[in-house]
């Protein structure tokens, strides 16, 4: 039974608070919940990548169209694996990566003066 809109908002708020209060616990829970499906998706993407590579290399000299299809399979599976891996990372709160990098650069430049 799916959640109604109000229940979904409450659940999202609880999840956001968990990430803010204890990001380590939140990432452990996320890994435990998504662990099996993530491994399965990555394995499937690797298998598809290998199949695409075999198709591409086996048909490269005979048919460029089939080799192109093999290449597209490789690109698609690599993208799928990258998106799966990226979705498992915990949500960051606070300053962005660029802001953090700029802060480190500013601190370093101040020390050098």
Could you name the key traits of this structure?
113 residues; mainly alpha
Shape: flat
Strand content: under 5%
The Cα radius of gyration reads: 22 Å
Mean pLDDT figure:
81
Percent of residues in helical segments? over 70%
Protein described:
By secondary structure, the protein is an all-alpha fold. The protein has a domain at 35-112. Helix content is 83%, strand content 0%. The protein is built from four helices and no strands. The protein has helices spanning 5-21, 23-59, 64-87, 97-112. The termini are far apart.
Task: Summarize the topology.
Elements lengths: L4 H17 L1 H37 L4 H24 L9 H16 L1
Helix pairs in contact: 1-2, 2-3
What is the structure about, briefly put?
The chain contains 4 helices and no strands. By secondary structure, the protein is mostly helical.
């Amino acid at each position: 039974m799916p959640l109604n809109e109000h229940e979904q908002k409450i659940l999202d708020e609880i999840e956001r608070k968990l990430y803010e209060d204890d990001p380590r616990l939140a990432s452990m829970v996320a890994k435990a919940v998504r662990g099996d499906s993530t491994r399965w998706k990555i394995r499937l993407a690797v298998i598809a990548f290998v199949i695409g590579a075999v198709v591409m290399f086996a048909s490269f000299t005979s048919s460029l169209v089939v080799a192109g299809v093999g290449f597209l399979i490789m690109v698609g599976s690599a993208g799928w694996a990258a998106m799966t891996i990226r979705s498992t990372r915990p949500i960051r709160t606070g300053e962005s990566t660029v802001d953090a990098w700029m802060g480190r650069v500013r601190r370093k430049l101040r020390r050098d003066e």
